[in-house]
Structures are given as C-alpha cells and as structure tokens.
Amino acid sequence: MLDIDNTSDTIADKDRKFLWHNMLPYNGNQPPMVVTEGKGAWITDLQGNRYLDAMSGLWCVNVGYGRAELAEAAYEQMLMMPYYPLTQSHLPAVRLAEKLNEWLEGEYVIFFSNSGSEANEAAFKIARQYHQQTGGHNRYKFIARYRAYHGGSMGALSATGQAQRKYKYEPLGGGFLHVHPPDSYRRPAGQSQMDFNLQCAQAIEDMIVWEGEETIAGVILEPVITGGGVIVPEAAYLDRVQEICRKYGVLLIVDEVICGFGRSGKKFGHLNFNMKPDIVTMAKGLTSGYLPLSATAVRKEIYDAFKDPAAYSHFRHVNTFGGNPSACAVALKNLEIMERDHLVERSRLLGQRLREEMQELLAHPLVGDVRSFGFLLGIELVQDKQTKEPAPLATVNKIIGECKKKGLIIGKNGDTVAGFNNVLCFSPPLSSTDEDLQFIVTTFKQVMSNQVQASD
Ligand code: PLP
C-alpha cells in the first residue's frame, strides 16, 4: 500500500537525497529500481513493472517472495518473546541449532550472528583461539583464494580475493594469504583440467610449507566460488585440499553463505563432495533473506577446546542481535518449507534443466563457458573464443540491461574481479515454477540472439 506521497518522482528524489546504496556508483540521473512487492520468483517496482528475479535478491530468497508463513512465524515469535541475548538462551535458537545439525549431517555447535561477514569473522576468531588453546600458539594465518568473496567487514574483506573490493580500504587485517583459484576455463593451454585442479590444490600445500605450517590457522573456501565467477572445481581438488588441511593440522572453513540451503542441489554445497569441514559458515538462504541471520557451525571436537575453565578460555565474542528469536523462528519455518516442498530436490532438477538449455549457447560467439552448481549458473562472456579475452563490461551491462527491459533480472560478477567482470550469473528462487524457468531461458536466449544481430 502506497502513501499519497509515494509517486515515483518524490521517492526517486528522496532516494537520491537520503539513501546510500550498496556497491552502486553514483548516478544522479538514474535512480535505482524501487521494489514494492514480491510473489514467488517475481518482484514489482514502484511503476508497476514486473520482473522475474533470477538472482533471488542477492542470492538469498531461496523459498521465493511473499511467503505468509514466514511473516506469521516472525509475528508470533515477536509477540511471545521478541528479544533476549544468547549470553543466555531461548527456544528458537536451541531448536534451530538442533535442526542445523540435521541439515549438516554432522555434530556441530552453532554460534549465531546476523550476516555472512560476521559468521566468517566468528570463524576466524574461533580458529585462532582454538589453536592457541591446543598448543598451536603461532597459528594465526588464513589461506583463501583469489576471486572469492567472503564479506565486507575488515577480517572477511581481508580473506576476500578481489582487489577491487579492497581499494581505498587498506590496510586490512593481517595474516590473510591468497592462492590461485581452480578456474579450469582459464588453465594453461595443453594442461588437463584435472592436472590444473591438482596443481591449484598443491599451491595451498606449498604455501603452508613456505609460510611455516606452525603459522597457519585455517583455509577458507566456498565449495564453488560463487560471486567471483561461478568457478566449479574438480571433486579431486576439494579432496586434496581437505587432505592437506588434515596433514598440517590446519582447520578447513567452508563458506556456505551462497552454496548452502539447497542452492547446490543438496542441503549444503560441501555435501556434494566428500567433505567434513571443521567450521561451516552460512547466512542468506538460512532465512531466505526474510530476516537477518547467520551461523558459524563448529565441529564438536573444536568446541571442546573452549570448555577449559581457565581465564579467557571461553569464546569471548558477543553479538547483540545474533540469533534474534524471530530470525531463528523464520529460519526454522524456512527449513520446514524447503523440506515440505522438496525444494532441495527441485533445485537439483531445475539446475539440470537450466544447464542443458544454457549449454546450447556455447555456439554463440560471445559465450566462452557455461558453468553450474545446482541451481546456480554462470556464463562467461568473451570477445574472442581463441584468446578468451573477457568481453568488456559495457557488453555485459548491455545484456543485463536488455534482459531487464524484457522483465528478467540477472546478475554478474561485475566491478569486483580484476580483468574478469564478464560472468553473467543466474541464481533464481528454488521455488521457481516450470514456466518461470522457461521465461528465464527464452528471454535470455532472445537477448543473446539480438546481440549477435546487433554486432553483424
Ligand atoms: N560469503 C559469501 C560467499 C558471500 O557471497 C557473501 C555475500 O555476498 C558473504 C560471505 C558476506 O555476507 P553478508 O553480505 O551477509 O555479510
């Protein structure tokens, strides 16, 4: 329902005057889209235009928009008991922690925060303190990969391997190191994909040895690099990284902020592989974005090192809003919906169909590679298929703009990865209907075919 004052012009003026947006370069003449409603995979803007949101907001609205059940869960919990800090306890947090153990298929103790960045910050602090308390006094460094994003706060940004996100904010936290990601599409000519992946894993072992194994606290990785260009490794890469972590007593931290909660076609991304992480971080799909909530799941044996009664041995980290009761109640209902509506299986099915459809575009002169993981797909655009020179940002933006004109919102890994802002991203709600999927495919193919004609 809009107030009298909510004409497009006044809202646009107020937006320009008062609101500071995420990641949006200032453009006084082009106000951002003001979204007013959502249902299923579709959103509506202030002018009444409808769009299929094939990015689920920011990779998070896994169960789709407009779920009254989630609103009711929040409302009921807010009436019953709106807030209490997790210095003590409350029912929704206990229930959710238990439920997450079921989803993780392992024994974990759960620390709640509000955002993916905070979940990763907690993971770094837990890892350092764990080593301090188990004899690894010098273990403070973390190894991450270039192209990966782990958050915007100082520690999480330090772990991020995207220089464009860091410019002008440095110096960041110390002790974060980066290695080459397993970006098979850009492997050296003549090298097999498997050899290249194993070489990338070997780079982690080399770094541990060169830095001194007694200084390395953890390796952080997403099962598949998502926002950094949908980089899907060979399973053998992850097996090898896990083996290396175990060999040197380095904790394996898996960032499931995007890959978690069905996106990958399994409950968590790492469950597609033979992985048993020491720490799992999660956010976004945990509540499908309906309320802020994140979690750091820590293997029970690691938590045991925090039971020592000696001074400063417990985890001295407080997060006022982390594990807010209504957010936990929404998360529980969100997981119930996913189970009831079989959305994890649906994600796998829709992901396969999307991949089959989009692979046809490999014949298109601009499409260098199509990569997917569950219902998450990336299309790498190039100017020249031989040299693999990335398509310019202007071309990428034009395609995104044309899709939007036709009512389809897609994303990109743009403005963040040096030289490689050329991967279009698709991450639609897992609840998308068959017709939604058809709309995504038909609209995108139409836009790509116009693109060929325009350049003829
Ligand atoms: N980790 C990954 C893989 C992400 O994609 C993001 C955000 O996009 C984060 C962490 C940080 O999450 P947040 O923006 O909730 O702090």
UniProtKB/TrEMBL annotation:
<keyword id="KW-0032">Aminotransferase</keyword>
<comment type="similarity">
    <text>Belongs to the class-III pyridoxal-phosphate-dependent aminotransferase family.</text>
</comment>
<dbReference type="Pfam" id="PF00202">
    <property type="entry name" value="Aminotran_3"/>
</dbReference>
<dbReference type="GO" id="GO:0008483">
    <property type="term" value="F:transaminase activity"/>
</dbReference>
<keyword id="KW-0808">Transferase</keyword>
<dbReference type="InterPro" id="IPR015424">
    <property type="entry name" value="PyrdxlP-dep_Trfase"/>
</dbReference>
<keyword id="KW-0663">Pyridoxal phosphate</keyword>
<dbReference type="InterPro" id="IPR005814">
    <property type="entry name" value="Aminotrans_3"/>
</dbReference>
<dbReference type="InterPro" id="IPR015421">
    <property type="entry name" value="PyrdxlP-dep_Trfase_major"/>
</dbReference>
<dbReference type="GO" id="GO:0030170">
    <property type="term" value="F:pyridoxal phosphate binding"/>
</dbReference>
<dbReference type="InterPro" id="IPR049704">
    <property type="entry name" value="Aminotrans_3_PPA_site"/>
</dbReference>
<protein>
    <submittedName>
        <fullName>Aminotransferase YhxA</fullName>
    </submittedName>
</protein>
<dbReference type="InterPro" id="IPR015422">
    <property type="entry name" value="PyrdxlP-dep_Trfase_small"/>
</dbReference>
